[in-house]
Amino acid sequence: FATWRWALVWLTQLVFYGLPWLSWNGRQAVLFDLESQRFYLFGLALYPQDLIYLAVLLVLATLTLFFVTAVAGRVWCGYACPQTVYTEIFLWVERRIEGSHHARKSLDEKSWTAEKVARKTGKQAAWLLISLWTGFTFVGYFTPIQPLATALATLSLGAWESFWIGFYGLATYLNAGYLREQICKHACPYARFQGAMMDRDTLVIGYDTARGESRGSRPRSADPKALGLGDCVDCTLCVQVCPTGIDIRDGLQSNCIGCAACIDVCDSVMEQMQYPQGLIRYTTQNGLAHGWDKP
């Protein structure tokens, strides 16, 4: 599932960063030109009196999101939400520059050496560069991006363009670099009302209690049934990799964003123990209650 998430990262960012640079009949293909009150979507030109069509598109997009949530749970949150996407990108940069979790922890505990300064500064510089480029691209949807790039290169940006590049860039930097899952847990309105769109047949990530309990550590060669144990070895890796810090074994929770990180790590443990995979899996509440292998 991590592979699927990265595929969505690449797809969404290729669209976001690339779309403003596309040309259509001598103009920018996608441009919301507020100054001249023209919205261009490839061959379609919308005027102020045509905004009803844009409103209809936004309503349809919202209804589609609600429908997907009712059927497949929070797959948007786990794979394509900008908060998830940019957090993945920033975490990748952090791992590339500062190393793994243990390496970063060790680095934080060290005194300030030239290596530590270089790594910390390099990470922050990369984060800021990505954030500012994201802000620049965002403004490029409202101001023609090629003249905008020229103005940026010559340091002649207008006040509003400078403000919005800085504002959107700062939001990206703070949200993806520091707030991360706190946005999902405390600030995102979608997380608050998505429970009203789900029922017992909605696809969720669930822990198979009947198969996993009683949990406990054991040697790989041991027979869990002889020890009175289920398949869960209580390694707590599912908790450690969860971006919102929940324990999926406690049941369905509103803070679960459906990213499937717990499924990947649990399947790897089951493989090492030579147990069947799927102790934690995509399923439904009815599926868990009835012991169905597939939702």
Notable traits:
mainly alpha, 57% helix, two-stranded antiparallel ribbon, 295 residues, 8% strand, 3-stranded antiparallel β-sheet, 14 helices
What does this structure look like?
By secondary structure, the chain is mostly helical. It is about 55% helix and about 10% strand. The protein has 14 helices and seven strands. It has helices at about 1-20, 50-70, 75-80, 80-100, 100-110, 115-140, 145-155, 160-180, 180-185, 190-195, 210, 235-240, 260-275, 285-290; strands at about 25, 25-30, 30-35, 40, 45, 205, 280-285. The chain has a three-stranded antiparallel sheet, with helices on one face. A two-stranded antiparallel ribbon has the order 1-2. β3 and β4 form a beta hairpin. The protein is flat, with a radius of gyration of 23 Å. The two termini are about 15 Å apart. The mean pLDDT is about 90.
N-to-C terminal Cα separation, in Å?
A: 17 Å
Count of strand segments: 7
- What is the approximate shape? flat
Biggest β-sheet, characterized?
Answer: 3 strands, antiparallel
The percentage helix is: 55-70%
Order of helices and strands: HEEEEEHHHHHHHHHEHHHEH
Given helix and strand content, the structural type is mainly alpha
- Range of strand content: 5-15%
Poorly predicted residue ranges: none
Using the CA coordinates, give the radius of gyration. Answer: 23 Å
Average of per-residue pLDDT values: 91
Count of helical regions? 14
Strand order of the largest sheet: 3-4-5
